[in-house]
Structures are given as C-alpha cells and as structure tokens.
Specification:
Helix content is 25%, strand content 30%. The chain folds into four domains: 339 residues, Alpha-Beta Barrel (TIM Barrel), CATH 3.20.20.80; 84 residues, Immunoglobulins (Immunoglobulin-like, Sandwich), CATH 2.60.40; 87 residues, Immunoglobulin-like; 99 residues, Immunoglobulin-like. The chain is α/β, with parallel strands linked by helices and 666 residues long. It binds ligand 9MR. Ligand 9MR binds next to loops.
C-alpha cells in the first residue's frame, strides 16, 4: 500500500465503526454485561474461559437487515469469517477496481462487538474473476501480489483482523496438487509467494492454509502436512492450518480428528476448524438431530483437547442461510439454529462442550468383544462383536486382519461405526485372523479384542454357474431413470446377486456393469433425457461363478421437457456503487417429472458487464445472458431446486440490475 491510502481508509473506518459501536452497545448491554461463565451463558463466554474463539461465517445481507441475526451474531460469537465478502470476486472484480463494502461492513461489526475477524480467502480457484484466470505467468504473479498486498494491507492496522486464509483448497483428494488455473500457470510456487506477500503486507497476521476433507488422517491431510512441513523448513511464513469441517452424518465422524490436529500442532503451527457444518439427509428427525449434536460436540471436544487449536468457526449459524441445500439438494439443517432462529440440539451440544467441566478426555473405550464370523464364503466374511463402552461415547471401530492361523502381523482393513463389518476380496480356502478395537472422539483407542480365525470356503468345489436370468423388463421410465426387473436364476449352491449391465443406444457400443442387486430388481438413475440404453443382467453365486447374460431390454428415456418446465427467482444479494451480486438465483423444476438440464436467460442493462459466476455456465450475447446448468446441477426431480449466482459491474451511479429472468428445460 502507498502511505497516503492508509490514513484515509483508517479514518473512514473509524468513523463508521464508532457509529456502529454506539448503536450496538446501546442495544447489547443487557446481553453482554460481564458475568462469570454460567451454565446458561453465551457460547463466546465459555469459549473465552478456555482461551478459544467460537466463530461464525457472516452473510452481509442478513447482517445488515435482520435484527434477530445480528443479535445472535454479537451475543454468541467472538470471531467472524466473511462467508463471501472478502473473496476475490467481491473485492477486486476487475483489475485494480476495488469494492470493500461487504468486507468493511463485517470488520466494522466485529470491531463494534469485540470480535476477531479471519480473512477468507486470498488465493482460491473459485470466486476468482475471469480476468485473473486467463493471465500469463508474469501478469498472474503480479495480480496475486497486488491483490494480497492491497487486501491484507487495508486491514493490517485494524486490531480486529487477526488472520487470513492465504491459500484455499490446493489439493486433490489423493494428495496431488489441484490443477487449478493457479497451479497450471505458476506451478506450486504461487503458494509460497502468496504467504510471503501476505506476511509483507501484515507482519502480525496469522497466515493459514485451509482445506476440506482433511479432518481425519488420510492422503489429502498427509499431503497438507508434508507441504506445511516443507514450507516452514524453507522459512515460508505458514502459521496456521484450517480444517474446514464440512461434515455429513451419513459419512461417519472422522474419529482421528484430534490425533490429526495434534500432528499438525507438533509442526509448530496453530490449528483451527474454519467452516464447520454437519449436514443431515432431510427431513430432520430427533434421532438425526442427536447424531448431529454428537458430531458437533466431538469437534469442540477435539479442539478443547488440543492446546494449539485456537477455536472453531461454524459456517453460518442459522439453517435459514446455509450453502448446503443449494449444493446437496436433499441434505441440509447443518447448523445450530433452525430457520426461525431457534436453538437446536446441536447448539446445546456446542454450548455444553464449551462449558463442560472436563477439558480433556483421556479415557479409552473398553475392549470390544471377540468378533464372531458368519456368512463365510470363498471370498468374504461378516463379523460382529459386542460393543465397547466409553465415558464420552464410542465413535467407531477399527477392523484388523492378519494372514494365516498364527504369525504375521495385524493391519487395519477397515472401520465401522456399528458393531459389524463385512470383509471381501479374500482368497478361497485361506485362513485369516480378525481383531477389532474401539475409538472415541478424543482419539483414545481401546486394546484390540481377542482374535477370531476364519477359513474361507473352497473356491474349487463349486464350479456350477447359476441359470441365466430371464424376462428382463423395464418399467417406470422417466427422463432420467428406469426400473428393471427379471425372473430369478437358480443355482446348486445359491445365487448371491446379480450384475446389471448397460450399453448405450439401440445397437452397437459395449455393455459395462452399472450396478449390482441382491434382489430381482434394480433402479438405474442419472440417465439423459430422450436417450436409448440397453440393459442385461447376469447372476453370481458365492464361489464367483457367473451365469450367461439375460435377454436385452431397450429403454428410451422420456424428453426432459415433457411434463417438465422450470421457474426462476433471482435475489439481489448485495450491491455497491459500481456493481452487484445476484445470488441465489433459484431454479425450480415446476413440472411433474425429473429434468436433466435447464437454461435461464436474462438481460443486463446497457453498460453492465458480467465479472464472475458460479454453479452455472454463462454465455453473453449483447446484453442477453444465457445460464446453463453446470455438470452437477442439471438433474432436478419434480419440485426440486438448485441455485447459481453471478456478479456484475455497472457504471458508477447506475442503480439498475439484471432483469427479465426466464427458465426453460430444453
Ligand atoms: O458458503 C459459500 C457460498 O455462499 C458460496 O456460494 C460458495 C461459492 O463457491 O462458497 C461457499 O463457501 C465455501 C468456502 O468459501 C470455502 N470452502 C467451501 C465453502 C462451501 O462451499
């Protein structure tokens, strides 16, 4: 930053925040008055007693317009991350043209409420304008340096802004570098450069690398661990690691979260949970709420137990504003307040985990019972065991296997959140030993159970294949799916299941397996509208013998437009003098059958230009914009909806916005 700009911005900011402070403190005194941490105190009081923060991701619109949102935001939380307002497309939509309105709004709110701000995010492959993405290496490096220096520099002297996500989501799931436009243009050098430029812009800010699916120990988190270690060895200023924490109850809890945080802490970095939400498959039920609440306490407990964990940020706080239903159509209710700002069991869980007496759980679960084997075939076995107990709760079991009836060593072959597990892919006529051990959320592990020895059945005894399945027929075909049924095969030993094969078109192409079924029916989904497919099935037995394939049935899906149709509703999320963001633009399948694609058209007023978009593919012709579904959000069941968003720049002083939205299902 050049010197003259700093005082100017600082002065502006101080005036704005002083006004906000006077207003807010008048309202907030009864809620925030200092009192000892009590069982019923707000989350931030209990977090502070542990030396941790508890935060939320703020959306600028409700923060400006909804009193209920603001009250919870200031009462319960001690930290704020901007959900979208500090991203590149919000702050620098075109080269060196800056919009700090949303960012300043959040920082001012935090200053007024004695909260810290985590800047999110400087270098990310999403929500970065097109003008950056197409730059050559030299220009892209300059663009990053300018962006980082200006944005971090703007808040460098603001005591509320204490940390930044410098790079976000740089890894693939297998631990290789994501081939983003950053990586493809600059190689991995952009990561170290971004950290160094951020340090130069604010020597006191804590600088983080942030990612999702790195909560447990896996290929991706290990790649992150190795990168952080190597960057620090080169004196690159990486101070902190953010585990986003976008969890879902149907995938189980990453029970080694604490262990994972601890290994990063041992590198000398601070750790934090940066974007916690725990989605469920809708609709809500009290059982699902309870599971979700347990996951929330598990996360807080893990952070409580790790000294280097600075705190936990929840990605929003009310289900009224959450990215989850927009991205995962049948999932949601991921946060700690419902749509009407009522506290959910997950709120109580966070509260109690922060307020609870025992900061660290060191007690391991009891040893599980010896596994009992059943359903032994030539290639698999089912195990079940008696549950362990634990002072806090068992979060899962590790299943260990050794070869033979003695000797060899046990290695982990799977995990289970229940008291059973099915192992497959074994060799026929072969012995194996199995043990299980239990884990709790704090990462304490029980002793291994006694072993059970299993010998798979002979692979050579049964060589007779099942009879060929017959009468394969299709029914209930829609624009995106079909139901198949057939007459059962018979077998000397017993049919274990069927393979379902599919070929494209009415002739030619080859059949590949698209699924299996243990019954005589199967539903195939995700098909294209107005398209033909051929299906066959074949039967298997336990010894792996496979029948001939059945008759072929040809299916043609219905047209996406038939009975389909869609509506579109666009919302102005935020605007400033020279631009605006429309999000969500909600597309709803208003028809009675599924659709597999949609197209929204709308008109930009003259002089307006599109500067960024997400969750749809936009093309511009004159002032007409056509938005087609992205690869992942074209399929919508009857009544289902999805959303996308875009950002526009407009001439200074012009207050018009995009209009004339129509939707079609071609
Ligand atoms: O919650 C954010 C949502 O409003 C935006 O539309 C979306 C755009 O990609 O980004 C969401 O936040 C993401 C965060 O910035 C980075 N980690 C994943 C979050 C959820 O997608």
């Amino acid at each position: 930053m050049t010197p003259p700009r700093v005082p100017f911005h600082r002065a502006t900011r101080r005036i704005a925040s002083l006004a906000a402070l006077t207003l807010v403190s008048a309202l907030a005194v009864p809620l925030l008055s200092a009192s000892p941490a009590s069982a019923s105190g707000p989350l931030r009081t209990h977090a502070a007693a542990r030396g941790k923060f508890i935060g939320f991701a703020a959306a600028t619109n409700p923060l400006a317009n909804e009193a209920a949102y603001r009250t919870i935001a200031q009462t319960e939380f001690s930290q704020i991350t901007a959900e979208n307002a500090m991203k590149w497309d919000s702050t620098e939509p075109s080269d060196n043209s800056w919009n700090f309105s949303g960012a300043d709004q959040i920082v001012n709110f935090a200053v007024a409420n004695n909260q810290q701000v985590h800047g999110h995010t400087l270098v990310w492959h999403q929500q970065t304008p097109g003008w950056v993405q197409g730059l050559g290496a030299t220009a892209m490096r300059t663009a990053i340096q300018d962006h980082v220096s200006t944005l971090v520099g703007r808040y460098a002297n603001n005591a509320a802004v204490v940390s930044w996500d410098v790079v976000n989501e740089v890894f693939n799931e297998d631990g290789t570098f994501r081939s983003s436009f950053w990586y493809n243009t600059l190689g991995q050098s952009y990561i170290a450069d971004a950290f160094r430029w951020a340090r130069a812009a604010d020597p006191d800010a804590r600088l983080c690398i942030n990612d999702y699916n790195v909560e447990g120990i896996n290929a991706k988190s290990t790649a992150m661990y190795n990168l952080v270690q190597s960057l620090r060895a080169q004196n690159v200023p990486v101070d902190c690691v953010g585990f986003q924490g976008h969890l879902a109850t149907q995938y189980g809890f990453p029970s080694d979260l604490q262990q994972n945080m601890q290994r990063f802490a041992a590198l000398g970095v601070q750790v934090r949970v940066t974007e916690l939400d725990i989605r469920i498959q809708m609709p809500r039920s009290s059982a699902k709420d309870t599971t979700q609440a347990t996951y929330y306490s598990n996360v807080i407990n893990a952070c409580n137990a790790v000294t280097a964990c600075a705190g936990v940020t929840i990605w929003g706080f009310t289900d009224k504003y959450s990215w989850v239903p927009d991205t995962f159509p049948s999932e949601g209710a991921a946060l700690i307040y419902d749509e009407n700002y009522q506290q959910k069991p997950s709120y109580t869980a966070v509260h109690n985990a922060l307020a609870g007496g025992t900061p660290t759980d060191t007690q391991a679960p009891t040893t599980p019972g010896t596994p009992v084997a059943s359903g032994v075939t030539s290639s698999g076995v089912s195990l079940s065991w008696t549950a362990s107990t634990d002072n806090v709760g068992v979060s899962g079991y590790d299943i260990l296997r050794a070869p033979g009836t003695s000797g060899g060593s046990f290695t982990q072959v799977g995990t289970s959140t229940t008291t059973s597990f099915t192992d497959s892919g074994l060799s026929a006529n072969t012995s194996y030993r199995y043990q299980v051990r239990a884990r709790d959320a704090a990462g304490n592990v029980s002793s291994a159970s006694s072993a059970v020895t299993v010998t798979t059945t002979g692979g050579t005894g049964d060589t007779q294949a099942p009879s060929t399945p017959a009468n394969l027929a299709a029914s209930g075909t829609t624009s995106s799916g079909t139901s198949l049924s057939w007459t059962a095969s018979t077998d000397n030993v017993g049919v274990t299941g069927y393979d379902v094969l599919r070929a494209p078109g009415t002739s030619g192409g080859s059949f590949t397996q698209v699924g299996t079924s243990t019954t005589t029916s199967f539903s195939d989904t995700g098909l294209s509208a107005n398209t033909s497919y051929r299906y066959q099935v074949r039967a298997r037995d336990a010894a792996g013998n496979v029948s001939s394939v059945s008759n072929t049935v040809t299916v043609t899906t219905t047209g996406g437009g038939t009975g389909g149709g869609c509506t579109v509703a666009a919302t102005l999320q935020t605007q400033w003098q020279t631009g605006y963001v429309m999000e969500p633009v909600r597309v709803t399948n208003s028809g009675t059958s599924a659709i597999s694609s949609w197209t929204v058209t709308f008109t930009l007023p003259s002089g307006h230009t599109l500067t960024g978009s997400w969750n749809a593919v936009l093309t511009v012709s004159g002032q007409t914009v056509t938005a087609r579904n992205a690869a992942y959000n074209g399929n919508l069941g009857a009544g289902q909806s999805t959303t996308f968003g875009f950002q526009v720049s407009r001439p200074n002083g012009n207050t018009a916005t995009a209009s004339g939205f129509t939707c079609a299902t071609p």
